[in-house]
Amino acid sequence: MSTQTQTTMDPTDTPFGMDLGEDVPLFQDEEVFAEDHPMAQLLQEFEEAGLLEPHSGDIRQGVIVEKRSSELLVDIGYKSEGIVTSRELDRLGPEEVAKLSVGDVVPVYILREDREGNVLLSIARARAEEDWKRAEALLESQETFVGTVSGYNRGGVIIRIGLVRGFVPASQLASESQAQQLTDVDQEERWARLMGKEMRVKVIDLDRKRNRLILSERLAMREFRRQQKEKLLEELEEGAIMEGVVSSLADFGAFVNLGGADGLVHLSELSWERISHPSEVVEIGQKVQVQVISVDRERKRIGLSLRRLQPEPWTVVAEQYQVGQIVRGIITKLVNFGAFARLVDVPVEGLIHISELSHQRISHPKEVVSPGEEHELRIIRIEPERKRLGLSLKQALPEEETVEVDWEPVPLEESGAAETGSAAVEEAAPELAEGPAPLPESEEEPVAG
Fold first, then answer.
1. pTM to 2 decimals?
2. Domain contains 45
3. CA distance 90 to 282
4. Beta strands 59-67 and 105-113, pairing class
5. 3-class SS at 260?
6. Beta-sheet strands, E only, within 105-240
7. Pick from 75, 104, 127: which residue ends a domain?
């Protein structure tokens, strides 16, 4: 074990002739010397006062003491003020320079010492260093942030983190931004619509030596939507009515953004009408009101409906239409036993039985009608509870070509007789074509129409 030797010095023998005022114990142990020696205390005071000599690459906090037309004088706690030259002010930009005033505390980057012994400083470099550190922290945390598009080229758009320029390649733009590209202009101008737009992005690659900072809107929005969807799934309830924006279309339905999270409106929930593609009802970017019809928290899926916020067509038919009424319909489909027609005013389809297409006997509906044609039709049956509508083309002909018909529904117990009568009419069709046959004397003569 080492031993410590204590000696006493005369005050006049202290370093630099300093009078310590009392005997100072000196130890051979270097650790104790480093902590207790007065020179070490003096150096610590210099450090705390910011009087240590500045080195190139250091970043310090300075105070602007004078603002000249072409330079700034900044007190950095050294023996003389540092200088921010006109060249460095140009890098900062006129708008930022105009905001600086005497007395402002600013970060400064130590560049070098010139031949005259002046310390040259850069506010722009100091801010850029802080911005690079912020970018590195964002890369490590993978946190998303919102930036503004400040420029663009044929390959993508530019978003700055402070003074550091970040680049969002076209492949990393979200689908909403991709949809806004211009296709009928020069490639250099294809992203002009995105200029000044706020965009949520995340840092995906960083290389300070190559001054490279790559951002992604696509991944940021995916992460943001995931977080928003989790939040929405906790709060959403079935039956809720919400406003959203159509974000994309697929063959099976439309996706609606509810504020960061997408829900699906299935093809069958877009309209009461029969449609083949969502584009027949909605378009990307359109604002719509939807009703929440299902919330699957385990699979993280939201089911929406557009049609349920519109009147149910069969309710409208039951309230506004009557048997015997003339309506306009469009032929939609032909089948062996008849033709389907959709009413013009209400998205409801009805059946025109083959026997109701013409007064003449036909073997197929195509002999009388074709899909897409619009005709006047007479309603002969309404069954809203079964969602069935019976229509007749032949009974909607001009009055002089038809006979009066009793529109009272046929009782169920007479259905057998009705079928027999229908068969008899079919057998007599050739004779009817030549003219009405004479009635037996026992039957009443029908009233001519």
1. 0.48
2. no
3. 51
4. antiparallel
5. coil
6. 105-113, 119-122, 145-153, 156-161, 164-169, 198-207, 212-216
7. 127
What is the tally of structural domains in the chain?
Answer: 5
Residue pointed to by tokens 């030596």 = 209
pLDDT digits 0-9 by tens, 57-112: 888 889 999 898 888 999 988 877 889 988 888 888 888 888 888 999 988 989 88
What are 35-53's pLDDT values in tens digits? 555 555 544 554 555 556 7
Q: Contact at 8 Å (CB) between 324 and 392? A: no
Can you read off the two tokens belonging to residue 104?
């402002």
Of 267, 284, 309, the domain-final residue: 309
Q: Which residue has the tokens 């004088």?
A: 73
Residue 302's SS3 state is strand
For residue 283, list its beta bridge partners.
Answer: none
Burial (0-12, 13-18, 19+ Cβ within 10 Å), 322: exposed
Amino acid in position 244: G
| 231-280 residue pLDDT tens | 888 888 899 999 999 989 999 999 998 876 789 999 999 988 778 999 99
The residue range of the domain holding 103 is: 60-127
**Cα 216 to the center of its chain, rounded Å:** 15
Q: Quick one: tokens of 217?
A: 């809107």
Q: Are 181 and 156 contained in the same domain?
A: yes
Alpha-helical runs (H) found in 142-289: 175-178, 217-235
428 domain-assigned: no
